[in-house]
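FAQ: What does the model actually see?

It sees only this:
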Amino acid sequence: MKTITERIRYVGVNDHALDLFEGQYIVPNGMCYNSYVILDEKTAVMDTADAHFTDEWLANVAEALDGRAPDYLIVQHMEPDHSASIAAFLAKYPDAAVVATARAFSMIENFFGKDAAPNRVTAAEGSTLELGRGTLTFVTAPMVHWPEVMVTYDSCDRALFSADGFGKFGAMDADEPWDDEARRYYIGIVGKYGVQVQALLKKAAKLDIAMICPLHGPVLTEDLGRYLEKYDIWSSYRPEEKGVTVAYTSVYGHTKEAAELAAQLLRERGCTVALYDLARADMAQAVADAFRYDRLVLATTTYNGSMFPFMKEFLDHLTERNFQKRTVALIENGSWAPTAARLMREALAGCKELTWVETPVKILSAMTDDNRAQLAAMADALCF
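And it is asked to produce this:
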């Protein structure tokens, strides 16, 4: 348990056993499942925890309550890393009322049965709950990133309990910068829903916020404008920084040689470059950097008449997350009938506001001096 303010206690847990969050995202520094207790004239518990940590979480809640009975369990998000301990909580505290959106109550029934949470308070946009010194105001946030999501504003401590918003990968005891793991988290998990995040940011702008209490990652108490600005950039799909992501796949090393030379030439011209071998790199990190920087180079082989599988996967991740507003250059390799450049461009055809370096670099098996000259010209075109 940790004291956030006089009224708010942190009762979340750290998970250092997890290797893949949501079954796909590498989390070398673990994960935290955040939960909070508000101690007022009435008490409110903000969300629960992953099923592997139910007992630890309940012990933290009991310590924070210090003999008091909880009046409310606020359920902001029904993803199981935050909701899996609802039934155990209600078994221990059967008189507590559950506060959630109507959609969340349907999900509670799906997870725990029709008789779960018999004492219900349905939250709607702008509805309030009086705790005593503070009033909780509920703000719906559908599809950020599930349809039942809401966030909660506490008027006394001016705290925004932001559900998965403003979260990051990493346990609470991970010593790492917020930006990189928050970006990877946002782009990977929430990135598809930029329009919905923009709508939530407009609602949040009307609130006097002194701290942000997310369901993953640290409580944010300083320089909140910077975090809000990051979310505005990410959710509007604007490039965050000037730079070039070079993403490639290679079978026998020739396409790798071209990608590495492209990266070298770009750096020589003063560009920041992030270089990824998509078969070996953290795919989520490569995707995050494609959104971070304003330029992208794609290099792959023609394989079974299509793109190499890891490139196809990478482009699927980009298009699913509404990739747009970038400059893109292509490098293809093929020993016969190369089609990769055309297919990569077709894969991104639905993306908005892309600027193309018009002439792809075409390698026929191995690099030539002409190819090296073409790569230099591509670097010149990109480093404007």
